[in-house]
Amino acid sequence: MAMSGGRFLQHLLLAVLILFLFQQRVADSDVMSCRDDEREALLVFKQGLVGDDGFLSSWGSEDDKKNCCEWRGIQCRQTGHVQRLELRGTRDLNAPLEGKLNASLLKLHHLSHLDLSYNYFSGSPIPESIASLTKLTHLGLSNAGFKGQIPYRLGNLSRLQLLDLSGNDGLYNAGNIEWLSHLSSLRYLDLSGSDLRESNDWFQVINKLPFLTELSVVWCNLPQIMPWAPLKVNATASFVSLDLTGNHVTNSIYPWLFNVSSNLNQLSLDFNLLHGSIPEAFGNYMTSLTSLSLKSNDVEGGFPKCIGNMSCLDTLELSSNNLTGQLSGFFKNLSGGCTEKKLEFLYLWGSSSFICSAFAEYLTYLDLSNNLLSGMLPDCWIKFEELVVLNVASNGFSGKIPPSMGSLGSIVTLRLSNNNFFGELPILSNCTRLRILDLQDNALSGKIPEWIGERLPSLLVLSLESNKLNGSIPFQLCRLANIQILDLSLNSISGNIPPCFNNFTALSEERSSHAAITYEFDFNLYGEIHYVDSAWLTWKGSKYEYKNTLGLVKSLDLSDNKLDGTVPEEIMSLVGLIALNLSKNNFSGTIPPKIGQLKSLDFLDLSRNRFSGEIPSSLSLINRLSVMDLSDNNFSGKIPTGTQLQSFNASVYAGNPELCGLPLPKKCLGEEPTQGPATIDIPEDEIITLGFYISLALGFIAGFWGVCGSLVLSQSWRHAYFNFLADIKDKIYVIATINFAKLKQSEAFTEDDWKLVQLVETLFRNVLAVQDIPLQQKAGGSASQFISLRDGFLELLLNENVMDIILVITLHVGGSSGSFDGISCFYWKFFITYL
């Protein structure tokens, strides 16, 4: 018994020792070095790549880089074999790798994961040799600049679970796509952007992939499927995500969809040929669907009530169709089932539906703009607790704005513009996150609420244009430190401008932090959505929608009201202003002299007021000003002189009887009218006609090719021409040399003149010597010295007073000493022109 106990103890100690050694072996395997042949194969692969920008800096043959298992993008097995090669670029940066794929990758016999997405391989075809990497389970070549035919030999990769060839616009499949059916382990397939117009069997092939869960074939020119035949339930019942956007899909797809929809979560059929009403079967078969998008089809009719059975639905995209009817019944059915999920995203642009949901507490984005919706908005907004963006602009809504909108605590953008709302503004003091409040083009009345300045500190855009507001501008509005666009135009607002407008911090800064005003939404169907906000603004007399540049616009528009008094000098501290419009009011007094500080101004309109006094001279310092109107005031005196102010049309200053100076025809006292050269007014249409341009083109062609064409086509003429130029050069050289000799005997030159002549003579000889040097010799030797001397002297001419040099030469050329005859004079002038 004791013996057996001792043996048991020995066995136990032996087991502990074996376990210790095994653990040590595992620890040692963490620093396992890669195989030499695979390291060399990777280095050869690297040689075919350029422009890595340090991406492959860890790859090398140096002593400290020999272990390729530690290289960036490489992962090895415990045996030292390379298992993963992942050199994936990024979407928002330029491709870090360029070049071509080297066949040395075939030596990586244990490679199971290859991802080269978001690089650029110069439009080369996908190498067929990749099909020899039979252990691959993951092949990612998306957005990598490949073109040509998709290799059918990829069907040999029977272990492949993920194949992503999307984003390579030049890829195509020739003939059928039967090779795809051999990838029996495939779970994820993305061929988006590839041309599959010849793949008439795509529908049947997809049905042969039993484990496929995600399929994306966006904009692939898929042929229409054949009439539907019953499918085996286990053939493709594992689909989770299906995206057939931008193909020629018709209603014949419906039966197949309903057969494979038991596990389907995401479905996108955007930009296809679907027509008619939405089938009732959507609500009966697709109860697990979380995202449904049928955008830009020809779907019409109402909303089937059975869609309410999709209780897991959180994203619904039905825009750009012809849907009609009420949504109230639809939303009432969104209950039960997956109660933890409710509708978060609804986009119905182009439809004419109405929304008021008893289950809208999870909706975050609602856009019903640009429709023909009418009637009153329902007073049920207290239920929209998560609503961030509400846009019902450009419809026919009427009545008062519902008071319950004041309970939208999460709202960031509220756009109710271009409707027929009337009455006073409801209290929105709980909407403290508001950044854009757009209520323009309605019939709202009453005073501007004080709570706008007190309770909306994040406001960037406030547009109350074209309403029936009255009263004065509340000083509480000055608390909007972040305001960038303030538009109170086309109302009946009276009183003075509060002097506290200099508290608008954002308008006092010349730069903007962001060009666009964006928000981010996370939706299953689209992933993360960047919503870019927009606003309609009056710019230079016309309406424009600003979107991607909205964050750069800084504008103050108080035009067409009943404001009076003087313009406070504090406004001149808003140096970030791009547009300032105070026209059509009753402002008086002078323009503040510091208006020149507004150097960012592009638009300035002070017309139709009662301004008086002189125009400040500092106004001419605003060199960005492209539109200005000072007409119909009481300005007097001379228009400040400056290129900017004189460049405007005279109509800009019209209606100011006491104003004088250019560009007005009225001259100021003591100013003599300018005498210009006599001109003959010939109507432009009599000269600049279509015939003029045709004659100009024909004359240029005839003249150019008449000379240059003859030299190109006739070798004898070409030789004669260049010999003529050589003779002219020789004559210039001889005459110049003779005249230089005569100058040396002249007593008219001073010592400085002699230095000048010597420099000119040296330069002249060197210039002529350079002309005789063959082109291939001008890069070095004495020729480069000549060129250097010539360039140095030209630099001297530029640095010194070149006019003094020319005067010295021409003095003696035109003098009575007789040193130069007429021919010498000609050549001297020619030489100076050459310099």
Structural description of this entry:
- The chain has 835 residues and is an alpha/beta fold.
- It is 23% helix and 19% strand.
- The protein has 15 helices and 45 strands.
- The strands form seven sheets. The chain has a 22-stranded mixed β-sheet, with no helix packed on it. Strands 22-24-26-28-30-32-38-40-42-44-45 form an eleven-stranded parallel β-sheet, with no helix packed on it. It has a four-stranded parallel β-sheet with strand order 14-16-18-20.
- The termini are far apart.
Overall, the morphology is extended
Fraction of residues in β-strands: 15-25%
The total of beta strands comes to 45
Major pleated sheet: 22 strands, mixed
Distance N terminus to C terminus? Answer: 118 Å
Summing up helix and strand content along with how strands pair, one would put the structural category as alpha/beta
